[in-house]
Amino acid sequence: MSTILIQNSNLLDIEKAEIIEGVNVLIEENKISELSDKEIKSSTATKIDARGKTLMPGLIDAHVHITATSVDLGRISNYPHSLTALRAGKLAEAMLMRGFTTIRDCTGADWGFHQAIEEDILKGPRLFFVGKALGPTGGHGDRRPKTYEGDICNCFQGTMHDSLTVDGVAEVQKAARRELRKGAHAIKIFASGGVASPDDPIFGLQFSEDEIKTVVNEAYSWGKYVLAHAYTTEAITRAVNCGVRTIEHGNLMDRNTAKLMKKKNVYLVPNLVTYEAMDLEGEKYGLPKVSLEKNKFVKDEGIVALDYAYSEGVKIGYGTDLLGELQVYQSREFILRQNVMPKSEILKSATLINAEIVNQKDQIGIIKEGALADLLLIEGNPLEDFSVFQDQGKYISLIMKNGKIYKNSLN
Ligand SMILES: [Zn+2]
Ligand SMILES: [Zn+2]
C-alpha cells in the first residue's frame, strides 16, 4: 500500500477561509486517512516536508472542452480523430499541471477519455463528461454551412463531433438515452443561441419546453442531471422551470432570473475568461468575424450577470469554457471574478461548490479524513493573492490526484 505523509503544511480551510499552520496529512492509497495538527507517526510512509507551503484541495473546473482543440471549431473537422484525441490529451494534461485535478467536460469528451484517465494512460484530471450535447436544427450545435441542405450525420464526424442535432420529443428522448447509455455523467442541452456558432441568434430560444422536460426526465431516470447552455433571461427562466440543474454562461440574465435560480437551487457556471480571451486573441486563431461580434455583445454583460447571481445568493461554480489555443488562460478566471466576489468565495466555487455540481461533495474539493487525496501544495497564500495560480502552475510545488503525485518540485 502506498503511504505518503505530508508534514508541517499550512492548511487552507476553504469553508472557514483561514489558514491553519502546522498540519500533517497521511495519505493511504487514494484517500486522506488522517489529518492532524499533532504529529502523525508512520514508519512506512514517504515523507514530504511542506513547511512554508499552503496545502489546499485540487482545483475543479466545471466547464471545459478538451476536444475543442482549436478556437476555430470548424477546423477540427480537417483532422482525423486520432490527432484530435492526442491533442485533447495534451490539453487535459496541461489542466492537471495548472492544479485542476477534476474537470467537467461540457461536450466532446466521452467515456474513452474518462477510461484512459482512470487507467492513467492519459495524465489528466478526474473527468466528468456529458458526451455529445443535444441541440435542435439550426441551434448552437448545428454548424452546417447555410448552403448545405442535407441531413446531418450524427456520427462522430467533422464539426459534429461534439453535439447531436435532434428535433421533437421522440428524437430528443432517444438522444438523451443514447448518451446516458454511453456513461454520460449528465446531459447537456443548448437552450439558447451561442457565440462560437455563426448562424443562430444569441437571443434565440432553442428546444421547446416539451423537449427540455423530456431530457430532464431521462436524466432523472438515471439519477443524473441536465446542464443548459443559456444566455438570456428568457432562455434561463424556461430551462430552470423545466428542471435544468446548472446554467452555463448566463451572461444576459437579469436580477429576477438570479432570484429564480436561487429559489430553485440552480447553479450558475459563468466563464468570464473565455469572452475576454476570444475578444483579445480570437481573431488571431481564426474565430469567424460573426462570432467575434457576438462575443463583444455578451462579453461585458458576464460580470453584471455574475454580480446579480452572487448578490442574490445563487451557488456559483468555477468554469472557463476556453477553446483550443486559449486554454492557457484557464486560471485567469480567478482574477476576473475578483471584481464581484471576494477571493474566499471564488475559492469555494473552484472546490466545494464544483464538487457539489459533479455530485462529489465531501469526496473532492476538500481536505478532510476520508476524502479522495486530490491536493496541492502552493507557494504563497491564495486567500491573499491569486497570482499563485497563474503561469501554468509555476507556483504549485506539488500536485496529487487520487493519491498519486503528478508533480513534485519540492526536493
Ligand atoms: Zn455554451
Ligand atoms: Zn462550453
Question: Can you put this structure into words, describing what you see?
Answer:
- This protein is α/β, with parallel strands linked by helices.
- It folds into two domains: 99 residues, Urease, subunit C, domain 1 (Roll); 299 residues, Alpha-Beta Barrel (TIM Barrel), CATH 3.20.20.140.
- 30% of the residues lie in helices and 23% in strands.
- The chain has eleven helices and 17 strands.
- Strands 1, 2, 3, 4, 5, 15, 16 and 17 form an eight-stranded mixed beta sheet that branches.
- The longest helix has 17 residues.
- The protein is globular and about 70 Å long.
- The protein starts with a strand and ends with a strand.
- The relative contact order is 0.17.
- The mean pLDDT is 95.
- Bound molecules: zinc ion (ZN) (2 copies).
- The site of one zinc ion has 4 residues, from strand 13.
Please give the structural blueprint.
Elements: E1 3-13, E2 18-28, E3 31-36, E4 46-49, E5 53-57, E6 59-64, H1 81-97, E7 100-105, H2 111-118, E8 126-129, E9 133-135, E10 163-165, H3 168-181, E11 187-190, H4 209-221, E12 226-232, H5 233-241, E13 246-252, H6 255-263, E14 267-269, H7 272-281, H8 289-299, H9 301-311, H10 332-337, H11 343-357, E15 375-379, E16 396-401, E17 404-408
Parallel strand pairs: 1-4, 1-5, 6-7, 7-8, 9-10, 11-12, 12-13, 13-14
Antiparallel strand pairs: 1-2, 2-3, 5-15, 15-16, 16-17
Helix pairs in contact: 3-4, 5-6, 6-9, 7-8
This protein binds zinc ion (2 copies).
